[in-house]
Amino acid sequence: MKLFDMTGAPNPRRVRVFLAEKGIDVEKVQIDIMGGENLQSNYLAINPRGVLPTVQLDDGSIIDETSAICRYFEETNPEPALYGQDAVSKAQIESWIRQIEGDAFAPTADVLRNSNPAFENRSIPGTDNTPQVPALADRGTDRVKAFYARLDNHLAGSDYVVGENYSAADITAMCAIDFAEYVGIAVPKALGNITKWRNRVSSRPSAQA
Amino acid sequence: MKLFDMTGAPNPRRVRVFLAEKGIDVEKVQIDIMGGENLQSNYLAINPRGVLPTVQLDDGSIIDETSAICRYFEETNPEPALYGQDAVSKAQIESWIRQIEGDAFAPTADVLRNSNPAFENRSIPGTDNTPQVPALADRGTDRVKAFYARLDNHLAGSDYVVGENYSAADITAMCAIDFAEYVGIAVPKALGNITKWRNRVSSRPSAQA
Asked: What is the pLDDT of residues B101-148, one digit of tens each?
Protein backbone atom coordinates (compact mmCIF):
# COMPACT_ATOMS: atom_id res chain seq x y z
CA MET A 1 0.00 0.00 0.00
CA LYS A 2 1.16 3.55 -0.78
CA LEU A 3 -0.08 6.98 0.22
CA PHE A 4 0.46 9.64 -2.42
CA ASP A 5 1.14 12.63 -0.28
CA MET A 6 2.41 16.21 -0.17
CA THR A 7 3.95 17.28 3.11
CA GLY A 8 2.80 20.90 3.02
CA ALA A 9 -0.74 20.35 1.76
CA PRO A 10 -3.66 20.36 4.22
CA ASN A 11 -5.73 17.40 3.01
CA PRO A 12 -2.82 14.94 2.87
CA ARG A 13 -1.96 16.14 6.37
CA ARG A 14 -5.43 15.13 7.59
CA VAL A 15 -4.68 11.57 6.47
CA ARG A 16 -1.21 11.55 8.03
CA VAL A 17 -2.53 12.77 11.40
CA PHE A 18 -5.34 10.21 11.24
CA LEU A 19 -2.85 7.41 10.54
CA ALA A 20 -0.58 8.59 13.36
CA GLU A 21 -3.49 8.52 15.83
CA LYS A 22 -4.25 4.96 14.70
CA GLY A 23 -0.59 3.93 14.82
CA ILE A 24 -0.68 2.84 11.16
CA ASP A 25 2.49 3.06 9.09
CA VAL A 26 2.03 3.45 5.32
CA GLU A 27 4.67 4.05 2.65
CA LYS A 28 4.43 7.66 1.45
CA VAL A 29 5.25 9.02 -2.00
CA GLN A 30 5.65 12.79 -2.32
CA ILE A 31 3.88 14.54 -5.21
CA ASP A 32 4.46 18.28 -5.74
CA ILE A 33 1.06 19.92 -6.28
CA MET A 34 2.39 23.49 -6.47
CA GLY A 35 4.73 22.41 -9.27
CA GLY A 36 1.93 20.53 -11.05
CA GLU A 37 3.44 17.05 -10.65
CA ASN A 38 -0.07 15.76 -9.85
CA LEU A 39 -1.14 16.69 -13.39
CA GLN A 40 1.70 14.90 -15.15
CA SER A 41 1.28 11.57 -16.89
CA ASN A 42 3.13 9.49 -14.30
CA TYR A 43 0.68 10.47 -11.58
CA LEU A 44 -2.39 10.53 -13.83
CA ALA A 45 -1.62 6.87 -14.64
CA ILE A 46 -2.23 6.18 -10.94
CA ASN A 47 -5.11 8.61 -10.35
CA PRO A 48 -6.65 10.04 -13.55
CA ARG A 49 -8.32 12.77 -11.49
CA GLY A 50 -4.94 14.15 -10.47
CA VAL A 51 -5.94 14.75 -6.85
CA LEU A 52 -4.19 14.14 -3.53
CA PRO A 53 -4.24 12.41 -1.13
CA THR A 54 -4.66 9.04 -2.83
CA VAL A 55 -4.09 5.57 -1.42
CA GLN A 56 -3.07 2.80 -3.79
CA LEU A 57 -3.91 -0.65 -2.46
CA ASP A 58 -1.70 -3.67 -3.11
CA ASP A 59 -3.95 -4.78 -6.00
CA GLY A 60 -3.28 -1.46 -7.76
CA SER A 61 -6.75 -0.02 -7.14
CA ILE A 62 -6.99 3.40 -5.57
CA ILE A 63 -9.01 5.24 -2.95
CA ASP A 64 -9.09 9.01 -3.18
CA GLU A 65 -10.88 11.80 -1.29
CA THR A 66 -9.57 12.45 2.22
CA SER A 67 -12.72 11.32 4.03
CA ALA A 68 -12.90 8.08 2.04
CA ILE A 69 -9.28 7.25 2.87
CA CYS A 70 -9.78 7.97 6.56
CA ARG A 71 -12.98 5.93 6.70
CA TYR A 72 -11.16 3.04 5.00
CA PHE A 73 -8.64 3.00 7.84
CA GLU A 74 -11.39 3.42 10.44
CA GLU A 75 -12.84 0.14 9.09
CA THR A 76 -9.57 -1.76 8.88
CA ASN A 77 -8.19 -0.42 12.19
CA PRO A 78 -11.22 0.49 14.34
CA GLU A 79 -9.30 1.49 17.50
CA PRO A 80 -9.07 4.21 18.59
CA ALA A 81 -12.40 5.17 17.04
CA LEU A 82 -12.02 8.58 15.39
CA TYR A 83 -15.46 8.77 13.74
CA GLY A 84 -17.46 8.30 16.93
CA GLN A 85 -18.75 5.44 19.03
CA ASP A 86 -22.55 5.59 18.80
CA ALA A 87 -25.14 6.84 16.31
CA VAL A 88 -25.39 10.35 17.75
CA SER A 89 -21.65 10.98 18.20
CA LYS A 90 -20.97 9.56 14.72
CA ALA A 91 -23.55 11.94 13.27
CA GLN A 92 -22.22 14.93 15.18
CA ILE A 93 -18.65 14.23 14.10
CA GLU A 94 -19.74 13.92 10.46
CA SER A 95 -21.76 17.14 10.76
CA TRP A 96 -18.84 19.08 12.21
CA ILE A 97 -16.43 17.73 9.63
CA ARG A 98 -18.79 18.97 6.92
CA GLN A 99 -19.15 22.36 8.60
CA ILE A 100 -15.37 22.75 8.98
CA GLU A 101 -14.82 21.68 5.38
CA GLY A 102 -17.55 23.95 4.02
CA ASP A 103 -16.99 27.00 6.20
CA ALA A 104 -13.20 26.93 6.73
CA PHE A 105 -11.39 24.55 4.38
CA ALA A 106 -13.28 25.45 1.20
CA PRO A 107 -13.15 29.25 1.63
CA THR A 108 -9.45 29.05 2.53
CA ALA A 109 -8.82 27.06 -0.63
CA ASP A 110 -10.86 29.69 -2.48
CA VAL A 111 -8.49 32.38 -1.20
CA LEU A 112 -5.34 30.48 -2.14
CA ARG A 113 -6.45 29.13 -5.50
CA ASN A 114 -8.07 32.35 -6.72
CA SER A 115 -5.24 34.71 -5.77
CA ASN A 116 -1.93 32.81 -6.00
CA PRO A 117 -0.36 32.86 -9.51
CA ALA A 118 0.75 29.24 -9.02
CA PHE A 119 -2.91 28.24 -9.38
CA GLU A 120 -3.73 30.22 -12.53
CA ASN A 121 -6.38 28.20 -14.38
CA ARG A 122 -6.39 25.75 -11.46
CA SER A 123 -8.93 27.35 -9.17
CA ILE A 124 -10.43 23.90 -8.64
CA PRO A 125 -8.19 20.88 -7.86
CA GLY A 126 -7.84 18.32 -10.62
CA THR A 127 -7.26 18.13 -14.34
CA ASP A 128 -9.83 20.60 -15.68
CA ASN A 129 -8.75 24.16 -16.45
CA THR A 130 -10.77 26.47 -14.20
CA PRO A 131 -9.95 30.19 -14.33
CA GLN A 132 -9.43 32.14 -11.14
CA VAL A 133 -12.35 34.20 -9.79
CA PRO A 134 -10.70 37.00 -7.79
CA ALA A 135 -13.92 37.88 -5.90
CA LEU A 136 -13.68 34.51 -4.16
CA ALA A 137 -10.51 35.55 -2.37
CA ASP A 138 -12.22 38.33 -0.40
CA ARG A 139 -15.36 36.29 0.16
CA GLY A 140 -13.26 33.39 1.41
CA THR A 141 -11.47 35.51 4.01
CA ASP A 142 -14.75 36.86 5.36
CA ARG A 143 -16.22 33.37 5.57
CA VAL A 144 -13.27 31.94 7.51
CA LYS A 145 -13.45 34.80 10.00
CA ALA A 146 -17.14 34.12 10.53
CA PHE A 147 -16.35 30.45 11.10
CA TYR A 148 -13.67 31.31 13.66
CA ALA A 149 -16.22 33.26 15.71
CA ARG A 150 -18.75 30.44 15.56
CA LEU A 151 -16.20 27.74 16.43
CA ASP A 152 -14.88 29.76 19.37
CA ASN A 153 -18.39 30.02 20.74
CA HIS A 154 -18.97 26.29 20.21
CA LEU A 155 -15.74 25.37 22.04
CA ALA A 156 -16.64 27.25 25.24
CA GLY A 157 -16.23 24.72 28.04
CA SER A 158 -15.32 21.87 25.65
CA ASP A 159 -12.01 20.07 25.30
CA TYR A 160 -12.83 18.79 21.82
CA VAL A 161 -15.01 19.71 18.84
CA VAL A 162 -17.53 16.93 19.52
CA GLY A 163 -18.19 15.55 22.99
CA GLU A 164 -15.43 14.43 25.32
CA ASN A 165 -13.21 12.55 22.88
CA TYR A 166 -10.65 13.62 20.31
CA SER A 167 -12.01 12.75 16.87
CA ALA A 168 -11.65 13.22 13.14
CA ALA A 169 -13.50 16.52 13.65
CA ASP A 170 -10.55 17.82 15.69
CA ILE A 171 -8.13 16.67 13.01
CA THR A 172 -10.16 18.42 10.34
CA ALA A 173 -10.40 21.65 12.34
CA MET A 174 -6.71 21.67 13.26
CA CYS A 175 -5.61 21.17 9.65
CA ALA A 176 -8.15 23.71 8.37
CA ILE A 177 -7.07 26.42 10.81
CA ASP A 178 -3.35 25.82 10.27
CA PHE A 179 -4.07 26.05 6.53
CA ALA A 180 -6.02 29.29 6.95
CA GLU A 181 -3.19 30.82 8.98
CA TYR A 182 -0.71 29.75 6.30
CA VAL A 183 -2.87 31.57 3.76
CA GLY A 184 -2.88 34.65 6.00
CA ILE A 185 -6.16 34.42 7.90
CA ALA A 186 -4.98 34.45 11.51
CA VAL A 187 -7.16 33.40 14.42
CA PRO A 188 -7.94 36.62 16.35
CA LYS A 189 -6.24 36.63 19.75
CA ALA A 190 -9.54 37.43 21.43
CA LEU A 191 -10.86 33.96 20.54
CA GLY A 192 -9.42 32.22 23.57
CA ASN A 193 -11.46 29.03 23.29
CA ILE A 194 -9.97 28.25 19.88
CA THR A 195 -6.48 29.01 21.18
CA LYS A 196 -6.84 26.68 24.18
CA TRP A 197 -8.31 23.88 22.08
CA ARG A 198 -5.66 24.40 19.41
CA ASN A 199 -2.85 24.10 21.94
CA ARG A 200 -4.47 20.90 23.21
CA VAL A 201 -4.75 19.16 19.83
CA SER A 202 -1.50 20.57 18.42
CA SER A 203 0.50 19.18 21.35
CA ARG A 204 -0.45 15.61 20.44
CA PRO A 205 2.43 13.80 18.70
CA SER A 206 0.14 13.13 15.71
CA ALA A 207 0.09 16.86 14.89
CA GLN A 208 3.70 16.53 13.69
CA ALA A 209 2.87 13.77 11.19
CA MET B 1 -38.31 12.98 15.86
CA LYS B 2 -38.87 15.54 13.10
CA LEU B 3 -37.24 16.15 9.75
CA PHE B 4 -37.17 19.81 8.72
CA ASP B 5 -37.57 19.49 5.01
CA MET B 6 -38.30 21.32 1.76
CA THR B 7 -39.94 19.23 -0.92
CA GLY B 8 -38.29 20.92 -3.91
CA ALA B 9 -34.76 21.21 -2.51
CA PRO B 10 -32.08 18.67 -3.50
CA ASN B 11 -30.38 17.97 -0.16
CA PRO B 12 -33.59 17.33 1.79
CA ARG B 13 -34.56 15.01 -1.07
CA ARG B 14 -31.39 12.97 -0.51
CA VAL B 15 -32.55 12.33 3.06
CA ARG B 16 -36.11 11.46 2.01
CA VAL B 17 -34.92 8.96 -0.61
CA PHE B 18 -32.50 7.46 1.91
CA LEU B 19 -35.31 7.05 4.46
CA ALA B 20 -37.61 5.53 1.83
CA GLU B 21 -34.96 2.94 0.92
CA LYS B 22 -34.64 2.07 4.61
CA GLY B 23 -38.41 2.01 5.14
CA ILE B 24 -38.16 4.62 7.90
CA ASP B 25 -41.08 6.98 8.47
CA VAL B 26 -40.27 10.36 10.06
CA GLU B 27 -42.57 13.33 10.65
CA LYS B 28 -41.69 16.08 8.15
CA VAL B 29 -42.01 19.83 8.63
CA GLN B 30 -41.82 21.99 5.51
CA ILE B 31 -39.58 25.09 5.59
CA ASP B 32 -39.56 27.43 2.58
CA ILE B 33 -35.92 28.19 1.73
CA MET B 34 -36.71 30.28 -1.37
CA GLY B 35 -38.94 32.52 0.76
CA GLY B 36 -36.29 32.74 3.50
CA GLU B 37 -38.31 30.91 6.18
CA ASN B 38 -35.12 29.09 7.18
CA LEU B 39 -33.62 32.43 8.25
CA GLN B 40 -36.55 33.52 10.42
CA SER B 41 -36.47 33.34 14.20
CA ASN B 42 -38.82 30.35 14.53
CA TYR B 43 -36.50 28.13 12.56
CA LEU B 44 -33.26 29.65 13.89
CA ALA B 45 -34.47 28.68 17.37
CA ILE B 46 -34.28 25.08 16.17
CA ASN B 47 -31.15 25.33 14.04
CA PRO B 48 -29.15 28.56 14.53
CA ARG B 49 -27.27 27.85 11.29
CA GLY B 50 -30.50 28.13 9.29
CA VAL B 51 -29.73 25.16 7.07
CA LEU B 52 -31.81 22.26 5.79
CA PRO B 53 -32.23 19.34 6.06
CA THR B 54 -32.17 19.12 9.87
CA VAL B 55 -33.36 16.30 12.11
CA GLN B 56 -34.57 17.14 15.59
CA LEU B 57 -34.36 14.21 17.99
CA ASP B 58 -36.89 13.63 20.73
CA ASP B 59 -34.61 15.25 23.33
CA GLY B 60 -34.64 18.48 21.27
CA SER B 61 -31.06 18.14 20.03
CA ILE B 62 -30.44 18.41 16.29
CA ILE B 63 -28.41 16.75 13.58
CA ASP B 64 -27.77 18.76 10.45
CA GLU B 65 -25.76 18.21 7.26
CA THR B 66 -27.24 15.70 4.83
CA SER B 67 -24.46 13.14 5.16
CA ALA B 68 -24.59 13.25 8.96
CA ILE B 69 -28.34 12.66 8.97
CA CYS B 70 -28.06 9.75 6.54
CA ARG B 71 -25.22 8.19 8.51
CA TYR B 72 -27.28 8.50 11.69
CA PHE B 73 -30.02 6.40 10.10
CA GLU B 74 -27.46 3.97 8.67
CA GLU B 75 -26.41 3.34 12.29
CA THR B 76 -29.89 3.06 13.76
CA ASN B 77 -31.32 1.05 10.83
CA PRO B 78 -28.40 -0.80 9.23
CA GLU B 79 -30.41 -2.74 6.65
CA PRO B 80 -30.33 -2.35 3.72
CA ALA B 81 -26.77 -1.03 3.95
CA LEU B 82 -26.50 2.11 1.80
CA TYR B 83 -22.95 3.13 2.75
CA GLY B 84 -21.31 -0.15 1.73
CA GLN B 85 -20.64 -3.51 3.27
CA ASP B 86 -16.86 -3.80 3.57
CA ALA B 87 -13.91 -1.44 3.95
CA VAL B 88 -13.28 -1.02 0.22
CA SER B 89 -16.91 -0.54 -0.86
CA LYS B 90 -17.48 1.87 2.04
CA ALA B 91 -14.47 3.90 0.94
CA GLN B 92 -15.51 3.88 -2.72
CA ILE B 93 -19.05 5.00 -1.86
CA GLU B 94 -17.71 7.82 0.30
CA SER B 95 -15.28 8.82 -2.45
CA TRP B 96 -18.01 8.93 -5.10
CA ILE B 97 -20.36 10.87 -2.84
CA ARG B 98 -17.61 13.46 -2.36
CA GLN B 99 -16.92 13.60 -6.10
CA ILE B 100 -20.61 14.02 -6.92
CA GLU B 101 -21.00 16.70 -4.27
CA GLY B 102 -17.87 18.56 -5.32
CA ASP B 103 -18.16 18.24 -9.07
CA ALA B 104 -21.95 18.30 -9.60
CA PHE B 105 -23.88 19.44 -6.53
CA ALA B 106 -21.61 22.35 -5.55
CA PRO B 107 -21.24 23.83 -9.05
CA THR B 108 -24.99 23.50 -9.65
CA ALA B 109 -25.63 25.35 -6.39
CA ASP B 110 -23.09 27.93 -7.58
CA VAL B 111 -25.15 28.47 -10.73
CA LEU B 112 -28.44 28.82 -8.88
CA ARG B 113 -27.25 30.90 -5.95
CA ASN B 114 -25.09 33.27 -8.00
CA SER B 115 -27.61 34.01 -10.74
CA ASN B 116 -31.13 33.78 -9.24
CA PRO B 117 -32.38 37.05 -7.67
CA ALA B 118 -34.05 35.04 -4.90
CA PHE B 119 -30.55 34.32 -3.55
CA GLU B 120 -29.19 37.88 -3.62
CA ASN B 121 -26.72 38.10 -0.71
CA ARG B 122 -27.30 34.41 -0.06
CA SER B 123 -24.75 32.83 -2.37
CA ILE B 124 -23.82 30.47 0.47
CA PRO B 125 -26.53 28.69 2.49
CA GLY B 126 -27.01 29.88 6.04
CA THR B 127 -27.31 33.07 8.01
CA ASP B 128 -24.30 35.06 6.76
CA ASN B 129 -24.80 37.60 3.99
CA THR B 130 -22.65 36.49 1.06
CA PRO B 131 -22.91 38.53 -2.16
CA GLN B 132 -23.42 36.78 -5.47
CA VAL B 133 -20.36 36.19 -7.66
CA PRO B 134 -21.74 36.08 -11.23
CA ALA B 135 -18.61 34.40 -12.66
CA LEU B 136 -19.47 31.30 -10.64
CA ALA B 137 -22.59 30.72 -12.72
CA ASP B 138 -20.66 30.13 -15.96
CA ARG B 139 -17.92 28.20 -14.21
CA GLY B 140 -20.51 26.01 -12.52
CA THR B 141 -22.19 25.06 -15.78
CA ASP B 142 -18.87 24.08 -17.35
CA ARG B 143 -17.94 21.99 -14.32
CA VAL B 144 -21.22 20.06 -14.30
CA LYS B 145 -20.84 19.27 -18.00
CA ALA B 146 -17.34 17.95 -17.36
CA PHE B 147 -18.70 15.79 -14.57
CA TYR B 148 -21.44 14.38 -16.80
CA ALA B 149 -18.81 13.21 -19.28
CA ARG B 150 -16.72 11.59 -16.56
CA LEU B 151 -19.69 9.89 -14.90
CA ASP B 152 -20.95 8.53 -18.21
CA ASN B 153 -17.56 6.97 -18.82
CA HIS B 154 -17.50 5.53 -15.30
CA LEU B 155 -20.96 3.99 -15.68
CA ALA B 156 -20.07 1.99 -18.83
CA GLY B 157 -21.09 -1.59 -18.07
CA SER B 158 -22.21 -0.77 -14.52
CA ASP B 159 -25.69 -0.86 -13.06
CA TYR B 160 -24.77 1.40 -10.13
CA VAL B 161 -22.24 4.09 -9.27
CA VAL B 162 -20.22 1.79 -7.00
CA GLY B 163 -20.06 -1.97 -7.48
CA GLU B 164 -23.15 -4.12 -7.91
CA ASN B 165 -25.40 -2.59 -5.27
CA TYR B 166 -27.55 0.49 -5.12
CA SER B 167 -26.04 2.85 -2.52
CA ALA B 168 -26.01 6.35 -1.11
CA ALA B 169 -23.74 7.25 -4.06
CA ASP B 170 -26.65 6.54 -6.44
CA ILE B 171 -28.98 8.65 -4.31
CA THR B 172 -26.48 11.51 -4.32
CA ALA B 173 -25.95 11.31 -8.08
CA MET B 174 -29.67 11.06 -8.87
CA CYS B 175 -30.50 14.09 -6.73
CA ALA B 176 -27.53 16.05 -8.08
CA ILE B 177 -28.42 15.43 -11.71
CA ASP B 178 -32.12 16.15 -11.24
CA PHE B 179 -31.06 19.38 -9.50
CA ALA B 180 -28.69 20.29 -12.35
CA GLU B 181 -31.44 19.70 -14.93
CA TYR B 182 -33.82 21.85 -12.87
CA VAL B 183 -31.21 24.62 -12.99
CA GLY B 184 -30.96 24.17 -16.77
CA ILE B 185 -27.90 21.96 -17.24
CA ALA B 186 -29.37 19.04 -19.17
CA VAL B 187 -27.62 15.68 -19.53
CA PRO B 188 -26.53 15.47 -23.20
CA LYS B 189 -28.50 12.78 -25.05
CA ALA B 190 -25.26 11.26 -26.31
CA LEU B 191 -24.40 10.15 -22.76
CA GLY B 192 -26.32 6.88 -22.89
CA ASN B 193 -24.76 5.30 -19.82
CA ILE B 194 -26.06 8.07 -17.59
CA THR B 195 -29.49 7.81 -19.17
CA LYS B 196 -29.72 4.05 -18.64
CA TRP B 197 -28.51 4.31 -15.05
CA ARG B 198 -30.83 7.22 -14.40
CA ASN B 199 -33.85 5.31 -15.63
CA ARG B 200 -32.82 2.43 -13.36
CA VAL B 201 -32.52 4.47 -10.16
CA SER B 202 -35.40 6.83 -10.93
CA SER B 203 -37.82 3.94 -11.37
CA ARG B 204 -37.33 2.84 -7.75
CA PRO B 205 -40.27 3.88 -5.56
CA SER B 206 -37.86 5.81 -3.31
CA ALA B 207 -37.22 8.31 -6.12
CA GLN B 208 -40.71 9.72 -5.52
CA ALA B 209 -40.08 10.43 -1.84
From this structure: 999 999 999 999 998 888 888 888 878 888 888 888 888 999 999 999
Confidence band (pLDDT; 50, 70, 90) for A121? confident
Chain A residues inside the 8 Å CB shell of B123: 139
**Mutate which: B47, B94, B132, vs A, most A CBs within 10 A:** B94
SS3 content of chain B, % helix, strand, coil (to 5): 55, 10, 40
Query: Which has the closest alpha carbon to B3: B30, B39, B38?
Result: B30
Judging contacts by C-beta atoms under 8 Å, the chain A residues touching residue B87 are 72, 75-76
Asked whether residue B29 falls in the same domain as residue B68, the answer is yes
- Same-domain check for residues B122 and B200: yes
Residue of B nearest to A57 (CA): B88
- Percent of chain A whose pLDDT exceeds 70: 100
Cβ <8 Å between A99 and B65: yes
Percentage of chain A surpassing pLDDT 90? 86
Task: Look at chain A and report how many structural domains it folds into.
Answer: 2
At B127 the pLDDT is 81
Tell me which amino acid residue A56 is: Q
pLDDT, tens digit, for every residue of A14-45? 999 999 999 999 999 999 988 889 999 999 99
Long-range contacts formed by B157-165: CB under 8 A, 24+ apart:
B158/B193, B158/B197, B159/B197, B159/B200, B160/B197, B160/B200, B160/B201, B161/B93, B161/B96, B161/B100, B161/B197, B162/B84, B162/B89, B162/B92, B162/B93, B162/B96, B163/B89, B163/B92, B165/B85, B165/B89
Phi, psi for B88 (deg, rounded to 5): -70, -45
Domain that holds residue A126: 87-208
Same structural domain for residues B143 and B175? yes
Q: Given its phi and psi angles, is residue B26 left (phi above 0), alpha (psi -120 to 50 degrees) or beta?
A: beta
Q: Cα dist. B140→A177, B109, B185 in Å?
A: 27, 8, 10
Look up the pTM and report it: 0.96
